[in-house]
Amino acid sequence: MATRAEQFDELVLDAASRMEQRAGKAFGDVEFAVEDVPPSDPAPWESSDVPLGRLFAAQGKMPARIVVYRRPVETRTTDARELAALINDVVVEQVASLLGVDPHDLDTGYDPDDN
């Protein structure tokens, strides 16, 4: 029996795997991580809203890193289906930002207003 945190991690990995398949070679070297909550100091380009995920650009030999914040995502959903859909949308948004494309180009089912 997996914990809620382990189930969340699996959903992030599933979404990341789908994005890697869709983006192909453009995807490159990207690390995915889950943290419970975002840091209390938002990046200058972020709004004052609590972020659900964040992209950290590659630096030197360090690959790009996409972080999904578990608690903020969980509090915005009421069931497992909504949770999986929101995690997918967060991953799609971050990968699209990394690649400089529209999220709909990566996932035609992307609908941030549906969550």
Descriptive overview:
This protein has 115 residues and is of the alpha+beta class. It has a single domain (4-38, 51-114), classed as Zincin-like, CATH 3.30.2010.20. It is 43% helix and 14% strand. It is built from 4 helices and 3 strands; from the N terminus they run H-E-E-E-H-H-H. It has helices spanning 4-23, 70-75, 80-99, 103-106, and strands at residues 30-35, 53-56, 64-69. It has a 3-stranded mixed beta sheet. A hairpin with a 7-residue loop joins strand 2 (53-56) and strand 3. Helix 1 (4-23) crosses helix 3 (80-99). The chain is globular, with a radius of gyration of 14 Å. The mean pLDDT is 89.
Reading the helices and strands in chain order gives HEEEHHH
Domains, number: 1
CATH architecture: 2-Layer Sandwich
Q: How confident overall, as mean pLDDT?
A: 89
Largest sheet data: 3 strands, mixed
Tell me the strand order in the biggest sheet: 1-3-2
CATH topology: Zincin-like
Radius of gyration: 14 Å
Distance between the termini: 27 Å
Assembly state of the chains shown: single chain
Label the structural class. alpha+beta
Stretches where pLDDT falls below 50 for ≥5 residues? none
What is the share of helical residues? Answer: 40-55%
The 3D shape can be described as globular
Name the beta content range. Answer: 5-15%
Helices, by number, come to: 4
E-strand count: 3
- CATH class, anyone? Alpha Beta
